[in-house]
Amino acid sequence: MGMLATSGAEITSRAEDADIIVVNTCSFIDSAKQESVDTILEMARFKESGRAKKLIVAGCLVERYRDEIQKNIPQVDAVVGTGELDQILAAAGIEATGLTPLDSPFKILNSNSASQSLKSGVSRQPNARAEGDARERSGRFSRTAWDGATAALPTYLYDENTPRLLATPKHSAYIKIAEGCDHPCAFCIIPQLRGKFRSRRFESVVSEAERLANQGVREVTLIGQDTTCYGEDLELKDGLAHLLDRLSQIEQLRWVRFLYAYPNKITGRLLETIAASEKICSYLDVPLQHASAAVLRRMKRGGSADIFLRSIEKMRRAVPNLTLRTSFIAGFPGETEQEFEELCDFVREAQFDWLGVFSYSDEEGTPAFRLGGKVAPREIERRRRQLMKIQKQISRRKRKAAVGQEFEVMLEGPSQETELLWEARSEMHAPEIDGKLFINDFGEHANAKPGEFYRSRIVEAHDYDLVAELV
Ligand code: SF4
């Protein structure tokens, strides 16, 4: 969006106004692929009616089904994979100089389900991790089973000079600090889609964060498939801890958080860094995927309920008032009733603050695709619901315990669910994913604005949501 906008395009969120439609896609599980294809077909109608002049498909679906998209959806004019973002201008028929060969200014709809920034230049990573090289030799990144996909893995990384247009509210921004993943998780296709792990330069992230802070951003959320590996390819020790520490020194930033920690990569140094800074949110999202040692072994992740319980205890000891989020997969191939029960017991014991459960999705090209003992879809759904039911009780208890307590919150603005309430987030609420915090009483702060921080008192609790008043 940033590249298009700096080249003279006007970005619109209304498909009916757009001359060029860009659909940014996901393809990591079946439901995401379906949503992407449905959106492309919906947007193709604007091409058919002659309203839109170009339809571009971008993102992970292109990495997986490049040829098929163009063969089966003739309305698509161009595809742009995750490693080809610098080709978005050519795909749109816009010259980088800002000259526009079609109507000017263009109106462009970027239709996506996940916010993503585009970049102007490709910076390749000079150092690969030994772990990634070894995985590559063992075939982890192979795309040979995919008809029509290019063999080349994406190597793209954006940098601080890449023009960016925020798709988030102006007080909060995501910063991608690394791309790709070298882990061997048997169910996961992301390494084949996104390529080998590579970190952005430390100074590049700092300079982007400084620029965002100068523009009014008060919260940055660092993302990557695995943020806890940050810097390993740059020969940085404790890279993420150093980066968090450095970003927390940017004066205008109030909250710095990061998502997606790999369980055995959470170091003592990282926990100390979180605990030592007021600005680094006491929040960890550690997708554990399962708790039965046998299932984790088949998933090629390792660990066990006992190991995880010990590390959770260490995390909670090191970071007072830690908010802990995780996610699991229900119905991995061969998951027995007993292994599933182990997972249920673990969830009861670990008492996570937030928890998500994915139904296992069988993805061609992953090692799990070739495993026997597939669990029937209805049974997968039953297990998913059962886990969520256990968590619902835990969540209700935890939310209730917060009533009467005071937290600093960042106002988001009027609620999308009801005009009568505003929404806010506390340190324990990452953007978009956790339960909601509604404000029902502004007290003396009738002129409060989105992006401002206030002290609030929790007055009501629901299963996942909270209601608070400003104090
Ligand atoms: S760490 Fe995450 S992105 Fe990487 S392979 Fe495992 S599940 Fe996939």
Q: What is this structure's SSE topology?
A:
Blueprint: H1 2-6, E1 10-12, E2 20-25, H2 30-48, E3 54-59, H3 60-72, E4 78-80, H4 88-92, E5 107-112, H5 130-137, E6 172-176, E7 178-179, H6 190-194, E8 198-199, H7 202-214, E9 219-223, H8 239-247, E10 255-258, H9 268-276, E11 283-285, H10 293-298, H11 305-318, E12 323-330, H12 337-350, E13 354-359, H13 377-401, E14 406-414, E15 422-426, E16 437-441, E17 453-461, E18 466-470
Parallel strand pairs: 1-5, 2-3, 2-5, 3-4, 6-9, 9-10, 11-12, 12-13, 16-18
Antiparallel strand pairs: 7-8, 14-15, 14-17, 15-16, 17-18
Helix pairs in contact: 7-8, 8-9, 12-13
The protein binds iron/sulfur cluster.
Describe the structure in your own words.
The chain is α/β, with parallel strands linked by helices. It is 31% helix and 20% strand. The chain has helices at 2-6, 30-48, 60-72, 88-92, 130-137, 190-194, 202-214, 239-247, 268-276, 293-298, 305-318, 337-350, 377-401; strands spanning 10-12, 20-25, 54-59, 78-80, 107-112, 172-176, 178-179, 198-199, 219-223, 255-258, 283-285, 323-330, 354-359, 406-414, 422-426, 437-441, 453-461, 466-470. The strands form five sheets. Strands 1-5-2-3-4 form a five-stranded parallel β-sheet. It has a five-stranded mixed beta barrel with strand order 14-15-16-18-17. A three-stranded parallel β-sheet has the order 6-9-10, with helices on one face. Iron/sulfur cluster binds next to helix 6.
